[in-house]
User: Fold these one by one.
Assistant:
Number 1:
Amino acid sequence: MKKFIVWLLIFTFIIALLTPFGVVGYYLKNFDYDLSKLTHYNPPLTSQIFDKNDEKIANIFDKQHRYYAKFEEIPPRAIEALVAIEDTTFFEHPGINIDAIFRAAIKVIKAGKAVQGASTITQQLVKNTLLTREKKLSRKIKEAIYAIKLEQVLTKEQIMERYLNEIYLGHGYYGIKTAADGYFHKKLNDLTLKEIAILVGLPKAPSTYAPTKNYDISMGRANRVIKRMYVLGWIDKATYEKALAENPKVYNDTLTQNKAPFIVDEVMRLVKQMGIKDFKTGGYKVYTTIDLQLQQSAKKALKYAYDLSLERIEGYKEKAYKKGKTPEEVDTSRLNGAMVSLDSATGDILALVGSIDYNQNSYNRATQGKRQPGSAFKPFIYQVALDLGYSGATELVDIAKTYKYKKNGEELKWQPKNYSKNYKGLITLREALVHSSNLATINLVNEIGLSELLAEFKKFGIKNIPHDLSISLGTMSLSPLELAKYYTSFANNGVQVETHLIRKIEKENKIIYKKEHKERFITTPEQSYIMTTILKDVVKRGTGVRAKVRGIELAGKTGTTNKNVDGWFAGYSPTTLTVVWFGNDDNTPMHKKETGGRISGPAFSYYYKEMLKYYPQIQRKFEIPNGVIEVDINGKTEYFSDISKPPKKRNIEKNDEELLF
């Protein structure tokens, strides 16, 4: 009887062990299971943005930060290490490890509770993608069934590829390629054995073993992986000891790694315009024209000029108090700025900063802020004059005039003045632009004729130009980026180029967008160079002296709008064009002494000094085109061409064209 009871117990135990396999077999044979999420594996992928040197600017993702690694990209050592610690018989079993299940069952019976799992890599993949995390026998049975089914439709390599892309590895990283980049700033094939061991040891408890949180614990787990590989004979003793001794450097980055938020925002806006709706999950690679070094320089330059302005304004107050006067009350809380820099020949945007501090204000004034350019617009008028036969030596009338006009039936008067509140009588075209004479410019426009000037302006493609004399003072609205585009007409030898932020966009190693170079002929290199010589003088001895940088030729123009609402400097070196703007966001005046040259010139100068540090080999002098003639006039060099010939004495006739306002 006792023997019978023993056999009955053994029989019952065997039935108990075999029953789950019977249940699994029944459900495996009689029911279908949806494996499409794994057979047609399409996880959300992170898009990346790069600068011109392919240095990463940022990661863009929705909920899961993941780079995808094909099986061929995954180092064999990584697969060996994973299999060693997680599932030694992975390449032999059919999805479940029966031996492991029996061992686990015996330990459960002995302990009276679950003490050891028996999940294969295939089962772990199924659990993470197809099932809930509930700890029930029914879920475990489903897991086994799904695993067996999956092994029948996918190869071991495909299962391994999906597993290593799906698993969570702590710190917000999904997949081994993502974690390699995040923790170590390395590509998969550059990882050391110790770094690989850290990564494959993470799935068991990613929060506990994450090296950014618990470095020592993570190293201990990695050492167990390495020891397991050594015990299995998969690495030799020298490799084993070297790996144990290594202590890799671990980076604790933010997930986005956003080094240039204004660039990221602008890229997001542009890809949306292109109709790309899955940018945050589609795994795109956007290669921009940005130079990250110059981007940081532009950011520092803008802050530098901003701080100088605040210091000056405090200085103005102190001087007023010392003289017993009430200082001008200026609210500097709304003062802000923007800067954009281009490669003059290609239109590629090298740097773009939309405010003093993105964290305080993310509105991008460089692309979205439309403000009046003031005198920074004058070079366009003077270029038209040069192309009509004027030269730098042509004399212009610099006297005050009263212009009468009618508006809504009422007769009004306009009495423009120079910023310096004086006038020269007669002044050369060069000196008029160098010292930004309003009166000479207005009289030049009147002399050319408004209708002819507007007709000539069509070649620049400038929009919303006012059809009245206020054009002389730059009263249209432009963003810094738009003004920079138009200034390529001077900086690029008379050829205006379209601006670009994105070089190309790739998805799955296929190019889906590539920039297209577009240009517009404005004038000849000779005529453009004559303008450059005048704008060089603006920087050397005119309103733009604060933009000077030793060791490089610079040309440019200041711009200050009525009541000092806007302060601009637009200028260029032989290769690079840069526009700086400052003003109050609510369009109220800045301090009355804060002109374009004073507030924006220092930012321009700072930026080019930084550029020379990074690129000392950059071209530093403008090249003189063959058709330009240099003539000494009263000890000063003037430049002429077949179009802009040396002037003769001429009488300025009164232009009776009706003035429009």
Number 2:
Amino acid sequence: MQKKALAWIFGLALILGPSFVKADGTLLGTISGKVVDERGAALPGATVELTSEDKGFRRSMTTDSAGNFQFALLQPGPYSVKITIAGFETFLSKDNIVSPDKTTTVAATLKIARIAETVVVSGETPLVDKTNTSDTTIISSQLTDKVPIGRSYQSVIVFAPGLTDPIPNSPSGGNPNSHGALRGNNLYLFDGVDTTDVTTGTFGQNFNFEAMQEIAVSTTGISAEYGRAQGAVVNVVTKSGTNRFSGSVKIYWTNDSWNAQNKGSNAINGAPFAREKTDSTVPDYNYTLGGPFWQDHLWFFGTYETVQAVLPAVQTQVSSVHPNETGQSAVPVEDTRLWVGKLTFQVTPSHLLTGQFNSDPITGFINDYWGASAELQALTSQSQNACGGVGCLKQGSWSGVFGSKVTGEARYAEQSGNINVSPYLGNGSPFFSFSDGLYYNGATFNGIVDRPRKQANLAFSIFQDIGGSTHQIKLGVDYQDLKSIANFDYPTDTLYYVSDFNPANRADPVFQVGDIRQNFIPGPSVSTGKIWGGYALDKFSIGQHWSFNVGLRVENQTSKSDLGQSVINTTNFSPRITAIYDIAGNGKSLLSAAYGRYYQFLVQAIADSIFAGVPQESNYDQFLWDGTQFVFDKSVRAGGNNAPVNGDLSPSYLDEFNVAYQQQVGNAMAFGIRGIYRKWTDIVDDAKFLTPDGSLFQTPANFAEAQRYYKAIELSFDKRFSQNWQVLANYTLSRATGNQFNNSQYTSQLFDFPGSNCTLRDAHGNTFTQPCPDAEIHNQYGLAPYDRTHILNVLAAYTMPLGPVVLTAAPVFNYQSGLPYQRQRTSLTPIGSPYTYFYDPRGTSRTPSTYELDFSLEAVFRPNGAQVPLIAGPIELGVRGEIFNVTNQQKVFRSDLISTTPNFGLADPFQYYGQPVSRDALQVPRTYRVSALVRF
């Protein structure tokens, strides 16, 4: 314990501990430049002094023989650069902005001094960077604090180009498809720490919105520092304390009674979509505080959010047999508490330590996991990521500079996030009633799911002149230790299937001959995994115009089932190369071309579901009621380890090509155009087989017949805040095609049951048979179900000072093409499992195109002389109003009848094709949110 505590304090011992983990790339930035005289000749030996404008620490160095200087591993923020040399004027550049993983260039031309004088110039902001031309959208808190947007990083990332998701600010899964990849192919980082769910590949943790400094979304041209992602690499960068005490109190209020009513009606029965509004004002409290413990050395930052939201009631179903005993509602109260604590310690000007804790417990969920609960006793309560103790995620990092040639970085983190499920009311055995097809008396789940992970990384960079070119050679290694824990069962470990269940006789149920009791055998299922990653890359320039980034990433992934059986063991090599031509030689006009190979992460679900030796709620002894008692009938053991292990299984990979032109205009504006082509190979899917005795087994494999492609043209515009306004805008013209798009990543209906026939129905309901592989592939090739031809995003804010009051108006606009779909019908496979047959080629139809306009207006009052001790800035008082979906658009963005069995009794069996049957298929109506703030 003492060794572990010291590791957290000092950082380096963390790296030498037993568990390395993943945190690729860097959260720190670089300032570099060249010092020349008026004739353009290099000035070696000039003294360059760097000062952090908000934290106060300093570094200094002298220019090399070519007049170059470089300060690496700098915390994000503003810096000043002062350059002196005998006989020349002093050069001072202020407010140079450092961004994570970016290089800020300071070009210094010194004049011969005639009198003692200092020349002051405006600093630089790296909107384009010839050392990093990846397709990265940086959305800063300076913008997100002003625009109307959902208060989560999941709501923000969908505004990056090439990401498709349901309408922004509408209910969605928070896992977008990025550039044709599946939703489970993204990588979610908090300050460089991987928080992606190890079992599903989706996001694994929520985060306090007030703690976010900026969100970087990288989608194309990603260097070898990052691996295990074919979609977006999302990095949430958190705020840090400075030499000035600062903080805020914000309260947001929402109330469903303020919002517009739902329009439309069920296409089949005409029932209106109008909802019963809840007149309950929900406050959302947010607090932040940051400042110095030790000026210029040690800073703290913390934030806390708490909100209790009354959710729509969960309605149980009314039994046709016992209508007076069933049909009830439960009102969930979702209690969310998000907090972050961070320490930043500049031990010396060249060595930095950080430590951070954050947690996201959410309680109060009520779910009908049966999908057919008749009473409250059958509902399930749920809480998630209620880690307790010191938080869900804890991390420590170190960065250091050794002279002018070597830098190092290291990070260690531990994460745990569980989901607890339990009966909502009581703890009785669940009963399924054949008389009405509903569930009674007991919840679906009782237990816990957890996915703990340990992770760390270590990287060193060497700066060296080779053959007249400056090279940054970076070597890194990262490691993850993964677990996927499931330990849940039915209440009392018993499930009944009965002819009838009368709630009035709950204490003494009446059984009939043939009723079934299943006694389940509980037990935890714990699968494990390990990932080793290593990379080497070289960033170098040739002459004034050419720059290159050449890298190779190597990864090994292993996974074992809960019985210790090895199910994944694969090693992959990912080459990456980018070439940049600096047209004007000033770093402002960049033409680039890049190639990269990207492998997916093979999720733990493969070990958990296919090869689980202790499957949850699957192993039981069955008993039948003989009129007087339950007598033994049979035993069922569903351990998946009987399935053959595919020793050749490897993750799919995509080859990506992109070309881009980027142009920075002045110091606060940039635009670009990019062309992208992506092709997937060796897509992982499962194959199901029927044995001669009729049993079923499945195994994952790589299928050459599975296809996925993506191509796009993107336009982007970025205007950082200056002259009172800021804008982030992008447009994507794209096309995603193929035949395998299942977001579970590894399972679909393709390739199942070779040698077997499937029974199908044609468009008029006539039955016919066809070999299953032929039926499964029929009409499957076409547009991806998440393809959107056109996507336009605009986030803007204009600030207007009016004396002591500052007004900010901020619109957000999103336009996107509708989603593809096709006529289809659910049929049966040889064993009765659902199987979908496409009557038309994939993507034949589309839902309507949609748009949404959101708007906010904020007024901030700065009282004259409102100062408090230790606080450099004034106190600010503000109010804000936000309107989402100003024009109250409620178009269909998802049809409920895309994959629903048609009514073959109609003259036109597809009469309702493409129409909605629930309000959730339409855009969310106009909604309102108001807030107040105190900030200093």
Number 3:
Amino acid sequence: MRAVRLLPVLAFLLLISYFAFVAADDPPKPASVERVPWTTSRVVGSPDPPPPYRAVNAFPQIKFHHPLLLAAAPGSDRLFVAEEDGKLFSFRNSPDAKAELFFDVKAEFTTLKQTPDATEFDKLYGLVFHPKFAENRYCYVCYTVKGKPKNLPEGSRVSRFSVTTTDPPRLDPASEVIVLTYLQGGHNGGDLHFGNDGMLYITTGDSADPNPPDVLKTGQDITDLEAAILRIDVDHKDAGKQYAIPKDNPFVGVKIGDKPARPEVWAYGFRNPWRMSFDRATGDLWLGDVGWELWEMVHRIERGGNYGWPIVEGRQPVRGDVRAGPTPIRPPMIEIPHTAGASVTGGYVYRGKKFPELVGAYVFGDWETRRIWAARFDGDRLKSMVELTHPNVRVVAFGQDNAGELYVLDYDSGTVQTLARNDAKNNPSAFPRTLSTTGVFASVKDHTLAPGVYPFTINAHQWQDYATAEHFVALPNTSSILDHEEKKKLQGGRADWHSFRLHFPKDAVLVKTITLEKRRVETQLLHFDGEDWRGYSYAWRADQSDADLVAADGAEKEFSIPDAKFPGGKREQVWTYHSRSQCLQCHNSWAAYALAFEPEQLNRGDQLTRLGELGILKRMGRGDKPKPPYTAAELAKQPKLADPHAEGATLDKRARAYLHANCGHCHRFGGGGAVDFELHSGANIKNEKLWNAAPTRGTMDLPNAKIIAPGSPENSVLYLRMAKFGRGRMPHLGSEFPDQIALHTIADWIHRLDPKNTYGLFETLPFVDADFSFPDKDGLDKALRSPLNAMGLARATGVGLPKESTRQRVLSAVATMPDSDLRDLFVGYLPRTGERKLGVNPRPQTIFAKTGNADRGKEVFWAQKTLCQTCHQIDGKGTAVGPDLSQIGKTRSREELLESILDPSRRIEPAFQPFLLKMLDGRAVTGLLVKRDEKEVVLKDAQNKEVRVAKDDIDTLQPARESIMPTGALSDLTAQQAADLIEYLVSRK
């Protein structure tokens, strides 16, 4: 075959396509710089019902400085609070109580020099009273001392003290007996509780800073005391100790290699355990463990339990170079994504009398987002989790009094809060249900902005399936967005663990109206309520007169749009109005929420200067000193995203800008991406997790697959995921069609990452004759089996390049191909038959709205196209790659079953944890670990084939972050078929 120079033709078609769907969006400049106030806003509050409870100050006359814990003493009506800097106070359990000093560890403790190299007191972490306190007057305190080296081997200390019988009581500093010490470091644990068995339980962390994760490799090591829950008997003593080892501790007498396990260890595998508690009714031990990058965890602790750190964070793999401990990894009872929480605070199972409806619920919270939840369980399964209060308490710890009533410590205000029923919980919200009542537009029908609402433009647009977008900013009255020269933490916002460059005023609104083929389809509002950002969608009516607030779980609408590249000359397009929780997957705190309104996007012409002159954007220098608007010289030095479609920018800048706008909000530390490379504008593309890195989500049948294979788009899964339709496509939110302009850019960018390649990939494509004909059918079939040729042919098909007769030959050949990722490059151009399929990102409500039939679902399960039987068995039939589903209905609800299919990597059972094996020759295999010994490693792949690799040929072996079950398993099913399948699985009991 002759090589064909396609660049001029492709470039011309792409240029036409660009003007067809990318807004030419430089709005006219205002006639003057006089700011008009926005006074018509109705975007306040929330359309969601108020929470059932509110937090109230239980002891109005008491205020502490950075309190860390609250404890009760048996036989006493007093409560005790410890401050971070070492002071402990007691007070009577009465609303008019006043706090009285109980002990000042920093000022009064006498045994500092008993720890070698200790120089001073550090922090106080734990306090608990002996179950027989009324008789022996003992309490136990955990605190740390610091010195040199930084991590003191015995710097964390659990000490016993005696308490006076005076009123108020005092702790006697001279009575200190050091019971136990362990390594002091970044994550110390230090919580103390007596179990119903009378034993003292102690939490310890991994004694390290957040990054890199578990640098000491202590999480799975039970030969030390770190990253564990310890259990000791303080009423007896073994030789040389101030305590005894309970004989039923799980690792008594156990050896790990040549080293004895520490017999104090009760459970292990924790990162930064922050607050544990015992259910006084059942004796169950509950623990909150602060996560690393993606998840927060709550565990119900079992004897000898392994909770995974640092091999996993929740169920997501972290470190594959750490050998697992002697017991199996247990999944958490609750996993909270970092879109909802970022530093869990363990709580209590409520057993009080004040709120009968909460009895038996585990109440816990999150320090960073200030949320408080009540969770209920059905055995080992989370049954429900309800948010209890408006998030306005910095939840550092929970406590309970002797009657079982619950208290919450607010670290910021220093107050002790309790719950009260919210009288407003049944009051309807006045939040605007139509776009016309938001106050954003003077005329919604004419799309005319209200006075004080201003348009802005951005450099790099998000790809939204051929739609265009207009952006607006609305700030109450004449308030301003503060642009800090040095990033600062928010004051009072729920994301104040981050530092942000831009600080928005309360009730600021960012607006985006999306138009598809000259019809407005959606207007999105991003609202900052003073504490958090919330996203709302309004769906435009058919007559374009107004738009209606979309329900919290989202919605869908079908469009049929003339487009010659698609079957019948029409593009059948389903517009998805995303759920409010999906909005926050992209608009997350790690990406600074306001994705479009960021300086790199706004630095376009003199726009930043004009926004400054209007007072919309105020520059703040060092020391919060105001600065004048940007000058032209200053703008030239500011970060700036390129327009991905503008030929004036370099190829590298255009490619990086596209990845930033479409991928970078998730693919960044903490952003929620299931794979942990970064794609935002400041990312290092040559990072080892991206550049020439083996993919953790499978090779997609690419030869020598890499995430980015420099010089080879045909070996780069980043390109293939962008280019394909169906399951595994990226981005997985906001788009179901490939962006042909971006594919041209990204393919050439990857091609030129190899310095030897001086020409664009699509300048020559060696797969067809000049007239796009094929010598014979074998030539076409061969082209479709080659990643490079198939990708090139799909690109040509996507821009409508082949003549119609050739196009039909290609699609006819594709229609007979078996399912594969290469076939998915074309499937969007095949005719649709029958009822509409769910596609790659179906809404659960679309499925649950259908009444399922188990008999029909059985047929769906065993049908060849669903591939269920290729990985699962039922009643001995099928293939045993994944879990046996014969009785899956006993342990999974409908909601959980659907979640496991739609997002299989969210919860990976430890027994089915996939591993990624990289060979020295660059090849990679992903599969379940069958065998690992001194000679070889055996993996079982998704096709149930065993892959054997000699140990000498292995570069690395580590847990993969993704399930071997592919995403998009329901994409080729209708909603009814999916409902039938779920009903069949639920019936398996």
Number 4:
Amino acid sequence: MICPNCSFDNPEGTSYCGKCGTKHGAAAPVSVTKTMETPSQRLPRGVVIGGRYQISEELGRGGMGVVYKAVDNKLKRTVALKFLPFEWTYDPQAKERFVREAQAAAALDHPNICTVHEIDEAEGRMFISMAFVEGESLKAKIERGLLKIEEALGLGIQVAEGLREAHKKGVTHRDIKSANIMVTESGQAKIMDFGLARLTGGTLLTKEGMTMGTIAYMSPEQARGEAVDHRSDIWSLGVVLYEMLAGRLPFRGDHDQAVVYAILKEPPKPLTAGRPEIPPSVEQVVGKALEKKPDERYQSVDELIDDLKAIAEGIEPERIRARRRKAKLRKWKRAGLYGGAAVLLVLMAVVALKLFTGRPQAYETLAVLPLENLSRDPEQEVFAAGIHEALITNFGQLRGLARVTARSSVMRFKGTNKPLREIARELRVDTLITGAVLRSGNQVRVSVQLINPVTEAQLWAQSFERDLRDILSLQNEIVSAITREVKLQLTPQEETRLTSTRQVNPEAYEACLKGQFHWYKLTRTDLESSLKYFELALEKDPKYAPAYAGIALVWTGSQQQGFVAASEATPKAKAAALKALELDSTLAEVHYTLAGIHSWGDWDWVSGERAYRRAIELNPSYPDPRAYLSHLLYMMRRPEEAMAQIKRALELDPLNSLFQAIYAMDLMYARRYDDAIALLRDTLKTSPNDLVALSTLRSAYHMKHMYNEALEIWKASYEARGDQEAEDALDRGFAEAGYQGALRRVAETLVARSRTTYVTPWQIGTLYTRAGMNQEALEWLEKAYEAHDPNSPYLSVDPIFDDLRNEPRFQDILRRMKLLI
């Protein structure tokens, strides 16, 4: 086919000249950013199609159809309906292509591809019913302003993952463009419109000589009208990546011929020319996706995904480094002998300096920041959180680290844009670890980076990939690699533990992660869900120690929250904890749980202290046993040791509102009420509904005779619990007889409630104590003792009970608990 413009001899059937870009055949102008549009009859608002779909509004139209927003009256959901243009209804090829689109899209089930519900025909018109995506097109998002580099990479990864699913099913999209990608309010990208999709091995349904697609996003082979494969989609995605990063298209012109010529012949303007902050590695990836020859492009979308993810995680892919090294080598050769020698001398000096100075011997304090969930699937957040907690636990067990910040404190910075140096300053650490988790089926990939927070420089980075069965080995390998990097001296026992290769049952492991996720919330519903997940884990692996440990925590948590009586919770918790101990005696969490059962359930103070100290020995950076050991030591009249333990717990977990409240309770036991009040006021600024902090603050106000302030905190406590009946009783009692009348009314309300549902007698006893009704208080505190209420040991130290200390009945309770010294 001879080009009429430059006389170049093109292969037969090509649409544009491979030399000058001139279009063959009809020269009607085509928009460089839209596919062919054909006028179509509009459907009026309110009309019902197919007996179920009620039209709401037209959303848009393109070369393969018109799209409407509609309501599916049968399933009561909003959908998008895509109709074959009316004038094409009797075109067999168009109808066949339309059906092909539906078949191709319906075969794809992926969070980054718009879901197709069904294909149907009504009133002589064919249509596809698909999910309605709330949000905006990527094109509209780009037009509103430049995207941040990390946001562009994240969206690019999502689109690439959607394409990977399509390519695996043999489907090439052939019309990837920013207008065909929707971005939801939560930032999820969804590929739309498989209108040009072609199944591998299927019939090409475009008319001979007609190039389908959008010109500005076409690959060179597509623009020439040649056969295309999945690598054409990679090119188009490269155009989209460029567009997101530069805010403009890489190949532009005043008319379609000029655009095609640029696609075929011209390199795109460097991204860094407009945005110098774009890393060279990003420009390398986009450049490789936009290679003119398909064989020089990424050969699979998997390769592109790997490079994008590595860059997003702060790692420069090896193949990019290799290309840059080759480019530098060529540059050095051109620079001549003397220039090369000078560069070599500089490099030798740098290497020598690094060898002789080295890196600091070891870092002393460390925080593992929340790991990013690269899958963008909310269901995988639990998995990422589990890996995060496991890494913190593993680092915390190392003797060479002075402190590893606990998870509850670092979680304050999840999703924050706060500079790393500020995070490190708040957590008081000299080293940060950041990272990301990606799970696909049973394959897990974790990427981690070691950060110097002072300079915010990346000191080291690496990715680890394993089967889910080897997740423990993966975690150990990450910890080992970082300890080598920071030159941390390991004990022989630690080296042995970190080289263990024990496998886990993937289903049991995942069920346990979900159980832990729900346990942390400590609501009645979440604790019930948590128990079910831990029991599911045991169904999958009856010898899985973490599941038994989790069951023990569920029962202790249920009892602590007042949902079940100690007589029911303690035996079940103890049995599960002892089984976990039998299966794995190295779990610090099991010893911590047993310590709580011994101390607050059995009132066995010696065994309780021994178990707390064993948990601390196994994981010196585990703050929870230290916090509760401080209370136990106070009850054993060892206040200096108690204060040392709670202060260490707060060093390990400085932003934990519960531990701040426990420290305030220790201050209360020392009669340092003003210090307790000051601490709790700060705590409640960031955690206004923390029930332990509220409970302790109202006690401190009570001891200071600040009754109005105490009453306000009582109200806030019941509001946080959602107990409107108790709030009403407070108001009614206060109107009748002031502060003490308010507490008396609430006590009476809870007594009445206890006749039909479980109410801890301790709670009623403390209310009567504060109301000055000593005999009623002693009666309910005796009931608390008989019910083995785990709060009863606090009788020995809480100043709230100072007015009862000389009462014989009160002393007898303490004597029976072996707490009267």
